[in-house]
């Protein structure tokens, strides 16, 4: 049976791993390679690296660390940060990344998803979506350029519309992040994820809000996502990955022990 | 000496690094004439079958692979290309491993089949040594080889399919051993130790 994936997320800035709260106040967590090795040995199923300032600074991420990761890590990993073209994506994949994730550049130019799909295949193309719940309208809206609070802005898309559109364009996986939940460790946004699951035929990864091990069980059982991404609970060692896997297994969530 | 066949449309680095972690230094080769100098060879592959098959034929790899006498293993698309034919683009493949590659019918499950899945050994072979019943490996694919007499290991995602196949000196792994942590390393080691 296919396992549910546990995916530590490493936000990269100036060559180091950082972590913010609600996308702000970034503090340094550690060295990229050291943390990546630690998590993969602990049983992480996949790693995601976001070079958070790349899109904001209108540049491609630094591909040198991507090669180091590929050399030392024996699990799949996905890389994001300022990938705006097929040529950019090729540079990242050549270094040994398994997938590339695009977010703001896809909003700026949605055809990029199709171009990447046609060149590298669906399985390589992950679309990250930052959604924010607007209490005034009761709608989930898509935000862009969230790597820096000064540049973050609302887009014209509602989250459900954008999820539909990116699938039509050829996205092979969707990472749905709820910004309201990010870094506050109050649990995943089960309601939104459950709704999006109904319209999402490709693997769906939950992001934002993990605080305790039960949050992972809940999001897998109630929202039927394929993977759960988390950062601060792992970086702050509030949850150990092997203990989490045992807890998932005890709760009948299929996972890799 | 082990060769990694580079036709220009696969991610060579991941496979190379995985062997380097096992203490061997593969040579990446682009010329089919070089192949016969090597003790064993790997055919990696990602992308579309029809594009990859055209490159293999245009560059003369089809003949070089057919004449090769030592262990040769395809990974993911590389495995599919060693089979008779594939539904992806409806192309004839290299024909070294009997059987057809078809679209993987996943039923209600999301497609592609992406993630860690379990294995079940159906025919013991030097390539399957050390595999335990709970072991999992990392898959990413939409097409698969239907189990037949050459299937060594099966997996299931909507349908049962071949995860590891072998015929004579040719073998294939549908998943990515280079990305499958310790289990993957065991399987790559088995390939390095496989004596015909």
Automatic annotation (TrEMBL), chain A:
Record keywords: Amino-acid biosynthesis, Cytoplasm, Histidine biosynthesis, Lyase
Catalytic activity: 5-[(5-phospho-1-deoxy-D-ribulos-1-ylimino)methylamino]-1-(5-phospho-beta-D-ribosyl)imidazole-4-carboxamide + L-glutamine = D-erythro-1-(imidazol-4-yl)glycerol 3-phosphate + 5-amino-1-(5-phospho-beta-D-ribosyl)imidazole-4-carboxamide + L-glutamate + H(+)
EC number: 4.3.2.10
One GO CC annotation: cytoplasm
Subcellular location: Cytoplasm
Enzyme class: lyase
Pathway the protein takes part in: Amino-acid biosynthesis; L-histidine biosynthesis; L-histidine from 5-phospho-alpha-D-ribose 1-diphosphate: step 5/9
Top-level taxonomic group: Bacteria
Gene3D superfamilies, per database record: Aldolase class I
One GO BP: L-histidine biosynthetic process
Record-linked InterPro entries: Aldolase_TIM, His_biosynth, HisF, IGPS_HisA/HisF, RibuloseP-bd_barrel
GO MF annotations, alphabetized: imidazoleglycerol-phosphate synthase activity; lyase activity
Pfam family, one: His_biosynth
Subunit note: Heterodimer of HisH and HisF.
Function as written in the Swiss-Prot or TrEMBL entry: IGPS catalyzes the conversion of PRFAR and glutamine to IGP, AICAR and glutamate. The HisF subunit catalyzes the cyclization activity that produces IGP and AICAR from PRFAR using the ammonia provided by the HisH subunit.
Family: Belongs to the HisA/HisF family.
Full protein name: imidazole glycerol-phosphate synthase
From TrEMBL, chain B:
Entries under InterPro entries matching the protein: Class_I_gatase-like, GATASE, Imidazole-glycPsynth_HisH
Location in or out of the cell: Cytoplasm
Domain Glutamine amidotransferase: 5-192
Annotated Gene Ontology cellular component terms: cytoplasm
GO-annotated molecular function: glutaminase activity; imidazoleglycerol-phosphate synthase activity; lyase activity
Alphabetical list of Pfam families matching this protein: GATase
GO biological process, one term: L-histidine biosynthetic process
Active-site feature positions: 76, 176, 178
Domain of life of the native organism: Bacteria
EC number: 4.3.2.10, 3.5.1.2
Catalytic activity, as annotated: L-glutamine + H2O = L-glutamate + NH4(+); 5-[(5-phospho-1-deoxy-D-ribulos-1-ylimino)methylamino]-1-(5-phospho-beta-D-ribosyl)imidazole-4-carboxamide + L-glutamine = D-erythro-1-(imidazol-4-yl)glycerol 3-phosphate + 5-amino-1-(5-phospho-beta-D-ribosyl)imidazole-4-carboxamide + L-glutamate + H(+)
Entry keyword set: Amino-acid biosynthesis, Cytoplasm, Glutamine amidotransferase, Histidine biosynthesis, Hydrolase, Lyase
Pathway: Amino-acid biosynthesis; L-histidine biosynthesis; L-histidine from 5-phospho-alpha-D-ribose 1-diphosphate: step 5/9
Quaternary structure (record): Heterodimer of HisH and HisF.
Function summary: IGPS catalyzes the conversion of PRFAR and glutamine to IGP, AICAR and glutamate. The HisH subunit catalyzes the hydrolysis of glutamine to glutamate and ammonia as part of the synthesis of IGP and AICAR. The resulting ammonia molecule is channeled to the active site of HisF.
Protein name per the record: Imidazole glycerol phosphate synthase subunit HisH
The species this protein was found in: Pseudoalteromonas rubra
GN (gene name): hisH
């Amino acid at each position: 049976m296919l396992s549910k994936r546990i995916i530590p997320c490493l936000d990269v800035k100036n060559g180091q791993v950082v972590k913010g709260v609600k996308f702000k106040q970034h503090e340094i967590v550690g060295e990229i390679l050291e943390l990546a090795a630690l998590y993969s040995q602990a049983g992480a199923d996949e790693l995601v690296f976001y070079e958070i300032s790349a899109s904001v600074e209108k540049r491609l991420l630094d591909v040198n660390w991507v090669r180091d990761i590929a050399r030392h890590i024996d699990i799949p990993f996905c890389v994001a940060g300022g990938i705006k073209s097929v040529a950019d994506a090729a540079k990242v994949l050549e270094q040994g990344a398994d997938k590339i994730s695009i977010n703001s550049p896809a909003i700026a130019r949605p055809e990029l998803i199709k171009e990447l799909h046609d060149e590298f295949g669906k399985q390589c193309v992950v679309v990250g979506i930052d959604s924010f719940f607007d209490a005034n309208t009761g709608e989930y809206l898509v935000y862009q350029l969230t790597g820096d609070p000064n540049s973050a802005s609302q887009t014209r898309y509602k989250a459900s519309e954008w999820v539909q559109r990116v699938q039509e364009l050829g996205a092979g996986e969707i990472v749905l992040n709820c910004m309201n939940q990010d870094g506050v460790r109050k649990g995943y946004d089960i309601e939104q994820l459950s709704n999006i699951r109904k319209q999402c035929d490709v693997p769906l990864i939950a992001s934002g809000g993990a605080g305790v091990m039960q949050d992972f069980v809940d999001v897998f059982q109630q929202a039927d996502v394929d993977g759960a991404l988390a950062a601060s609970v792992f970086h702050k060692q509030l949850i150990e990955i092997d203990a989490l896997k045992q807890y998932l297994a005890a709760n009948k969530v299929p996972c890799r022990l | 000496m082990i060769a990694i066949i580079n036709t220009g449309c696969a991610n060579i680095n991941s496979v190379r690094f995985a062997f380097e972690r096992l203490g061997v230094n593969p040579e990446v080769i682009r010329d089919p004439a070089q192949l016969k100098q090597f003790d064993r060879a790997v055919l990696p592959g990602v992308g579309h079958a029809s594009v990859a098959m055209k490159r293999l034929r245009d560059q003369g790899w089809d003949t070089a692979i057919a004449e090769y006498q030592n262990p040769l293993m395809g990974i993911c698309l590389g495995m599919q290309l060693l089979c008779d034919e594939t539904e992806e683009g409806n192309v004839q493949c290299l024909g070294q491993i009997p059987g057809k590659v078809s679209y993987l019918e996943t039923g209600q499950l999301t497609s592609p089949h992406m993630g860690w899945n379990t294995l079940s050994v159906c025919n013991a072979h030097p390539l399957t040594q050390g595999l335990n019943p709970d072991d999992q490996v990392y898959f990413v694919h939409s097409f698969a080889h239907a189990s037949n007499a050459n299937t060594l290991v099966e997996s299931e995602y909507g349908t049962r399919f071949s995860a590891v196949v072998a015929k004579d000196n040719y073998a294939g792994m549908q998943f990515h051993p280079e990305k499958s942590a310790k289990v993957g390393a065991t399987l790559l080691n088995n390939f390095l130790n496989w004596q015909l």
